[in-house]
Amino acid sequence: VVRDAAKAIRKPTKAVGTVRGDEIVDSLINLPPQTYLPCLERAIAAAEAGPEAAAQRVADWRNRRVAQVMDQPLEQALNQCWPWGDPEIAPLLRSQWSEAARVALEQPGVTLGVAQLSLLAEPGGVLDQLEGAGYEIEGPPWKKGQTMAPAPQTDRDDDLN
To answer: Which of 82, 102, 119, 121 minimizes the number of CB atoms within 10 Å of its CB?
Structure first.
């Protein structure tokens, strides 16, 4: 969707990173089965939470309640299951995204990034890294108990309304 939208307005896109197919297959086949136990536990918890929990996740997502989305059993399962729970692939993916954010911030202009919510909002994730580096993060809170003031209105914001 993002690639098609950018193509329609003739804007360049750049993939954040890649993982080789043979690395993916090797990881899935060669890791001991107990590696995937946390994924199974979280997936069972998500299934047991039922459709009501999934509906709540959707409502939290729609209403920009990031911390609540992160607490949902389904979200936790997605973060524990492959590839994000893989002990070899997950660190590679996370480092690729962190590096892409760092490089983008060094460039002039505006960059739009589309990433998995947990990659951004997980403890130590991209948002925590940016905040730790001194950047001001504007948007919904992503941690429990966190509050954020709305972004200040500027003349540019008025032009968009």
So the answer is: 102
Distance CA 7, CA 51 (A): 37
Cβ neighbors of 42 (< 8 A, separation 6 or more) are 73, 76, 77, 79, 80, 81
Distance CA 51, CA 113 (A): 30
CA-wise closest residue to 94 among 124, 69, 68, 71: 124
Reference 54, options 82, 76, 32, 26; nearest CA is 76
Q: Provide the 3-class DSSP secondary structure of residue 30.
A: helix
Between CA 135 and CA 38 the distance in angstroms is: 33
